[in-house]
Amino acid sequence: MYSEIVMDHFANPRNVGEIQNPDGLGQVGNPACGDMMAFYIKVDDNKLSDIKYKTFGCVAAIAVSSIVSEMANGKSLDEAKQISKKAAAEALGGLPKEKMHCSNLGAEALVKAIEDYESKN
Amino acid sequence: MYSEIVMDHFANPRNVGEIQNPDGLGQVGNPACGDMMAFYIKVDDNKLSDIKYKTFGCVAAIAVSSIVSEMANGKSLDEAKQISKKAAAEALGGLPKEKMHCSNLGAEALVKAIEDYESKN
Amino acid sequence: MNKIFLDHASATPVKKDVLDEMLPFFSRDFENPSTVYDRGMEIKDRIEQERARVANLVNAKEGEIIFTSSGAEANNLAVKGAALARPKKGKHIIVSAIEHHSVLNSARFLERQGYETSFLNVDKYGLVDLNRLEDLIRPETVLVSVMHANNEIGTIEPIREISEITKQKDVLLHTDAVASLGNIEVDVENLGVDLLTISSPSIGGPKGVGALYFKNNMRLMPLIHGGIQEKGRRGGTENVPGIVGLGKAAEIAKKELFQKEKNLTQLRDRLINGVLDNIDKVRLTGHPELRLPGHASFCVEAIEGEALIFMLSASGIYTNTGSACASKALKTSPVLIAVGTPEDVAQGSVVFTFDTSNTQQEIDYVVETLPIVSARLREMSPIWNAA
Amino acid sequence: MNKIFLDHASATPVKKDVLDEMLPFFSRDFENPSTVYDRGMEIKDRIEQERARVANLVNAKEGEIIFTSSGAEANNLAVKGAALARPKKGKHIIVSAIEHHSVLNSARFLERQGYETSFLNVDKYGLVDLNRLEDLIRPETVLVSVMHANNEIGTIEPIREISEITKQKDVLLHTDAVASLGNIEVDVENLGVDLLTISSPSIGGPKGVGALYFKNNMRLMPLIHGGIQEKGRRGGTENVPGIVGLGKAAEIAKKELFQKEKNLTQLRDRLINGVLDNIDKVRLTGHPELRLPGHASFCVEAIEGEALIFMLSASGIYTNTGSACASKALKTSPVLIAVGTPEDVAQGSVVFTFDTSNTQQEIDYVVETLPIVSARLREMSPIWNAA
Ligand SMILES: Cc1ncc(COP(=O)(O)O)c(C=O)c1O
Ligand SMILES: Cc1ncc(COP(=O)(O)O)c(C=O)c1O
Ligand code: FES
Ligand code: FES
Q: What's the pTM?
C-alpha cells in the first residue's frame, strides 16, 4: 500500500508543468517501459530558483517527481545533486518494495537537468 | 449412503447365530480381507427349514447376510441357489457401488452350505 | 461518494443466497465427507449434488466435473494432467499467445520436463489464427489450449471451429472459460471441448474453489496427489462450504444468463461509445463485436494505467489495468503486445468489467469522469504534447 | 441422544471467533488482493497479517509461509516442489512407510519422472528407524519426509533427531504436521525442519486452506503455476476468507496449546485405560507414551471397523477407522500393516481423536458403550469363538 504522503503528492503534485526556455532540462525513462520524466530548472546564483516537471508513469513515479521538486527547490546545485533516491522515498513515507526503482527516476532526472545547465555554462 | 433397509438389517440382523449339527455349512471370505461369513442350514423335505449365519465384515456384509437368510428361508434348495447377488442388493434397496462385492458373499456362502448338504446326502 | 465497482472480472461479491447456503457447512455440518458414518456421508452426497449443479451450468454430466481450489489450479490440472498422462502420444502442446499465466506457465513447466510448446498467434483483435493452428498440429501433439474469452481484451475465441480441427486431428482441446462463464453461453457439447476451466469467484461464488470439466472420465495425471477424494483425481479434504457456494452460484448463473447477457451488452456499448466519442487518442482493445457482453477495454494514450486506476478510484470508480495478475508484475501486458499494441500505448490500459448490479447511471458517470481524469494526467505527461 | 464427536482429526467445527473474522471477506471486502487500487491492496495487507499469525504458530518468519488449499496440497508442494527444483542434486528421496497418501503418492509421481524412493521402516510403535535412515541417505538424496505425528496411530516421530542426521548429510527435511499442530508444540527451529505442512481444518479453521512452511525462501518448483500470487510460488486468486480463518485459528491454537495438551492427555489416558481394562483382546495401536495428547487408537479383535463405527454412531459416538481417506479405499490400513498388526486384527481399527470440547463424561460413556457394541458384533462374528 502507498503511504498517505505518496497519495497526497499523487493527487496534488507540486510544481508540475514546464518552464519555457529552461536553464537546464533533464529527461529519463522511456514511455515503452511505462515511465518517463522531464525536469525543467531555472538557476539563479548557483541555486535552483524554479523547478517544474512532467511525468508519465505510475503513482509512485508521479509522487517521486513531486517530492523531489519540493526537496530541491531553493537548494544549491551541489546540494540538489545529493538528493538520494533513499531520501526521496523516505520523505514520501516509504515506497512498496517493487516500486523502489521509480524513486530513482526523480533524482536522476533532476541531476540530468543540473548537468545540462552546467554543460552549457 | 446406505439405504434405510440396509441400516435396519445391520442394526437388527435377522436369523443371526449358529446351528448345532447343521445339515450344511458354507463358509466364504477371509478375515485378513475384512470379511468372512459362515452360513448354517437345516434341510427338511428338500426345503430350507432353518438358516443361521455368523458374519465378520462391514455394514453391507452384515445386511446382506441378513437379507439372504430371510429370502432363502422356507425356499426349496433349487430356488435358494437361484438367489442372485443382484436380487439381494435390490432387496436391500441398493448398495453403494464400492460395496457391491459384499453382496456376493451372502449368496455364495448359502450356496456353499447347500452344496455341503448335497455332497453329504 | 458512491463506489462504482467495474472490476468484476477480478472479483465479485459473494451473493447473499450463495453465502446463506454455505454457512451451515462451517460449524454445523462440518464433518469430513470421507468419513464412513452417516453425517459424513450426507455431506459427501451434498458434494455430489453440487457437482450436478456445476455440470448443469456447462451442459456436462455430473461425473465429468472435478472440484479444484481455483481457476488457476484447474488450468494447471488440465494442461499438465492431460499431457503427463499421455507420454506415449507425444510431448508437444499448443497454447495461444494470450492465455492466462496459469496456462502459459504450466506449458513452461512441461518444457522443463522435456515437452515442446508452440504458441498460436492472434490477430489485432485477439482472434487466434485457425489456419496456423492446422499447421502447428503434429502427430505427437497431445493438447491444444485456447481460452474461451480473454479477460483483458474481452475477445471471444472461435472454440467451436477450433474443436472441429482438433477432433479431426485427434488432439485434446482445453479451454479456459473463467472469463466467459456466466457472461455468455458455455456448453461443452456445442463447444466440442475435452477440458474446460471454471472459476467460482468470477460467477459470484466464493474464492478458494474452482472446477475442471473433463470429458468422459478421460485419463488425467493428478496435480494434487492424495487419497480417494474426487475419485483419486485430486487429494485433500474437500472445501465443502466452497463447493456448496460454487454450486449455488452456478445455479443462479444459469438462471440469469439470458437477461444478464442482454443487460450487460447495453451497458457495454453505452460505455464504449461514450468513451470513444469523448476522449481523443483512445483505442478500444479486443474485438468490437466478438467480445464479452460485460467487458469494455481501452488504451488511453500518453498516460500510465496504474495512475489512471488510482485517479479513477479517487473518483469512486474501481477498475483494472491489464489482468488482475499482471498488474503488479511491472511488465507490459503480454496480451496487448500479442495484439500488436505499441508498448507505450499499452501502458495506458484500462479494463471495465460489469455485473448486473451496475447501472446506466454508473456508466454515464464513468463516461463523464474518464475524460476529466485522462486530461489531468495528460496535462502532466511529457509525451502528451508530442501526440 | 447427544452426539459425542471423537473424530477431530478428520474435521473440527469452525470456531465462532474464526467464522466471525472470515465473514466480511465474502461479500463486503470481496476485492481481489492482486488489484492495484486501495481496496484490493488493503486485502493484500490483511493476507500478510494472516501470514504472520500462521508463521507465529510454528515459530517461523512471515516470509516463510505459503498458503495452499489443503494439507495435501502443501505435502505435494513440499515433496514435488523441493525435488523438482533440484534435479542437479539428485533424484532420490526417502519417505517413511507411514506417511499420508499425499506424501506417498507424490513420491510415486516422482518415480514416474525418473526419481527413486526409499521407504523408511518403523517399529511396532510406529517410530522410524534412525539407524536405517543414516544408511538410506546417499549423495544424490534430495529430501527426507517423515511426518511429525501419525494421524492413525498417534505416534510422535523423533523429528529433532532426524534433522540432526539430515543437516549433517545436507539433505532437506520435510515434516507433515497436520496431525500434531495444535495438539503439541510445533516449532520449526526446535524441530530443525526445512519444510512443514499445515492444515486449517485440523486446528479449527475452515476447509479449503492450508499452508507450507519453507525455510529462508528456499527454491521450490510451484505446483500450481500462475501469476504473481504468493510471490510466484502458487498461482490462483487467494482464498481470502479461508486465509483469514486459518490465521485466526492459528492465533487461538497458539494461545490454547498448553492447556489443551494437558486436558486432552487426561482424557486420552482415561479412555485408553478404560478400554484396555474393559474389553478383552483389544490392543492399543501406536506408542503408549510418545503419542498425541488427544489421540487413542485401538484394534478390537474379531470385528470389522466400519461395522463398529456404525454401531457406535447409532449410540451417538462419532469416530473413525484407519485414516479418513483409507476408510473407503477398502484396503487394510498400510499404517497398521507397517507396524506389524496382523491383517485380520487390523480390520478392527478404531481411532478416537479429541478436542477441548470433549468432556470426561463423554469419555466415560465411550468406555461404557464400546464393550457393549463390541460384544454385540463379536456375538455374530464367526471368528470370535475361535479367539
Ligand atoms: C497426517 C495427515 N497429513 C495430511 C492430511 C491431508 O490434509 P488435508 O485433508 O487437509 O489435505 C491429512 C488428512 O487427514 C492427515 O491426516
Ligand atoms: C482468463 C483467466 N483464467 C484463469 C484465471 C485464474 O483464475 P483464479 O484466479 O480463480 O485461479 C483468471 C483470473 O483472473 C483469468 O482471468
Ligand atoms: S514508473 Fe515504473 S513502476 Fe513506477
Ligand atoms: S465386507 Fe468387504 S467391504 Fe463389505
A: 0.95
